[in-house]
Amino acid sequence: EDGKITRLTETNEPEIDPQICDTGTQVAYVRGGDLHVVYVATRKETRLTQGGPAGTTRGLSDFLAQEEMDEPSGFFWAPGCGSIVYVEVDETAVEEAPVLGYRGGRADLMMQRYPVPGAKNPKVRAGIVDLKTKKTTWLKWPKEEERYLGRFRWAPDGKAFYVQTLDRAQKRRGISRVDAATGEAKEIVTETSPSWFEFTEMRPLERSPRFLWTHNVGGHWHLELRDGVTGAAIKTLTSGDWDVHGVTQVAPERAAGQEAG
User: Which of 96, 117, 143, 234 could make an S-S bridge to 111, C-beta 3.0–4.6 Å?
Assistant: First the structure.
C-alpha cells in the first residue's frame, strides 16, 4: 500500500523463475538446481528439494520444453499454496556440443548438452512436493515410457491437476488427470495423428469439474468442453474455417451451464 520495497533474498547464486502463490504469502524459485520457497512476511527460506547427481535439476524445464514446446517454467503452484508440482530433469545422457561465443571481449568456449534428433533426450519426471513435509510424491504412470510432459494445469480445488503428454514421434497426444495426493496419473483424452501433434490450449473451469481445450477439427483449431474426470466430450463450442488460438477469459456463470465465453 505504501509502495515500500523489501528484498527477500540476498545470495551469491541467482533465484530463477520466481513465482508468487495465489495467497501472496510465499514466493517459490529455483536456486542451485533446487526448488526453494521464501515466506514474504518473515523472509524465512525453505529448501523443498534436496539435490541430486550433477547434471540434474528440479523445478527447471529442459531445453526441449523451453526451445521447442514453449514451456518456460518447470514448477506450478497448487491453489492455496500447500504444494507445488515440478519437473526433475536428468541431462547426464545427453551429448555435449561446443558453443563458441564472445563474452567480456574475449573468446569463450562453452560445452552445452544439446539433444539432437535421434540421440538421447533428457530424462524428465514430475512430482508433487508438500510444503509442510517437504516430501515429493512422484507421478505414477500405468506404463513407463519416454514421453514429453507439458501444459500442467491445476484443478481449482487443488485435489488434482492435468498434464499433457506427447510420444517422441509426436503422433500421440494425451491429457492425463493426476491425483495430487497419490500421484496416480490417468489418461482421460487420447488423440493420434498420421503427421504430428503439438501441446494444446487447455483450461479447467472454476465452478464445475470440466475443462476447455482446443483441438483440430477439419484442419482448424476449435474449442470444446469436456468432463474433467472422465475426459468425455460434452459440447463443441466453435466451428468454421477459422482457428481458436487461445482462451482469454471464461465467464464462470455461463461455463457452469455448459457454455463458455
Answer: 96
